[in-house]
Write a structure and sequence with these properties.
The chain is of the alpha+beta class. It is built from 12 helices and 29 strands. It has a 6-stranded mixed beta sheet with strand order 16-13-12-27-28-29, with helices on one face. The protein has a 6-stranded mixed beta sheet with strand order 17-18-21-24-26-25. Strands 3, 4, 9, 10 and 11 form a 5-stranded antiparallel beta sheet that branches.
Amino acid sequence: MTITPLHPLVLSDPYLQLPGPGQVHVAWASATRPAASAVLVGDAVAGLTAQDAARAGHGEEIPGVRMIPAHPTRLTRTAEDADSDLPAALRPPREAGIVPREVWRLVARVADLAAGRREPYRVVSVFGPQPDPLEVTGGAGHVWLSDVFTLAPAPAPGAAQRILLTSDHQAEPNTPANLQLAAATLGPLDAVFLAGDMVNRPDRASEWFDGAGGAAFFATMQGRADRADSAGASTWHGAPLLQHVPLFPAIGNHEVQGRRIGQPSIAASFAAPVPRAVAEAELAADAEARAALAASADPTSDPTADPAAQREAWLRDRSFSTTTYEELFTLPSTSPGAGRYYAVTVGEVRLVVLYATRIWRSAVADPDPADRVAASRFQEAADALDEPTRQGQGDFLFDAPIAGSAQHAWLRQELASEAFRAAGVRMVMLHEGPYGIGTNVMPPFTPPVRIEEREQDGALVGIRYEYPGNVLLRDLVPLLEEAEVDLVFSGHSHLFTRFTSPGGVHYVETSNTGNTHGAFHATSGREREVPPAPWRSADHLASGSPGGMEPAWPTAPLEGVPYVASNDHVVFTLLDTGAREVVSYVADVRDPGTTPRELDRFALRPRGTR
């Protein structure tokens, strides 16, 4: 397979976003701001030369081609560091720390589209002054004209859909193989639903576009990857999916960048988030910082100053951020979460996307406070007890639909809405699901309870964390069951498993995409780490699922177990609403000629039976 290279200044092919009645958004990325960019739509686009496209991008009319200008926005937090997977000449030296990297997102809203009809389109970016004659893409040319792709507006409500369910890409060895096999096996699709963890560290630009060992996110989802599988049997390229169908993502823990201030690297920043309340307390105690913010927001010196935005940026730099995710994707903004959680109708699917994830920390648990040299999900380091910004705060929740929260109130309203109740398929997607047999279902999904350990004289000698209860089981599952949700789709533990509740709700984790973190079940012979005393070990499961539910057996199981947790296999899943079924496939990447086979097939509730 020959892959046509992108222009040196172009970082991605176009990707489709947020279709609506008669319209769809088209976005792509570049390494500098183009002089002009546009989407070109119409039957004549296939015959365009780069010169034609450049003139159209500058506003000249071309017969048979409709031109829609693209709006450029620079991403505010993308960066690289010495650990970025880039050529040595482009990689910052280690002493430079985190270095901003220029990335521009171009986006156009293509309107006046006919319902039910796909139209050919291309995108063009012109870099620098318009030359004469125009140089074309492929070298250091001025013009980049994409290949021909197709777009369509939102399907009519109630229209049958074929949707790829995927998650946890993270530039893992088998992710390009997974997507390439999925595209070849499933055929035409209408959308991609992705349950989080697209990359590893979200502020590192090269993980999205041009690094990560040949398996960057957009490269893989657009058929431009170049990565050998885990067995070294074949090289895979992913598939050109996002150029043709819209992506609907959820936030996973790897879409959340940690505290940037004072961190030497992107990886260190990613591992150093603190709750928002810690950053707010830091600001309240820092009179100099408050004065600097007040001065920078003085409208007499800067009429465009936005005090609220500047305060928000200060707090985000010192707590955690989903900014890069939010700037890359055009998502519904009608919820209080403003795209971090949302609901959208995709044909006959009403999709509710939740923001339910937390920081991942190690399971180190030292009973003696004096022995604690590092923060973990269970403890703070002994030398950081009086420095809240150096503490990990346990596996704290970034956000979740907890009773009393804005997200929970919004979810209750959405589940009761006419749009949800009238949908042919009621679906919820979130990164961390309520049931699972992977390693990451522990500790229980709940805000950690901080226990301060003191001597008899009151001196603080240690801090540990307990995890009583599970807020997904307590506050989320009853809502989903009462609303008769058809399908709950999650990721996070890098395996495939399915649960079906007595009420008929299917809970599917299909995240054995590029690798696995293992299964912990009676059939696996493996157990999770359980903390020793003084921690409450009864709160932690060595094996099995929260809530005690047993996984359903796949209809054609792999190796006689009710899950797939394999670094030699990939699993991908299709939601086919026309057939009202969910079908999963498995393939062995050790075989260069591998052919995916059916792993699991189950039916959704028949129409009209609720």
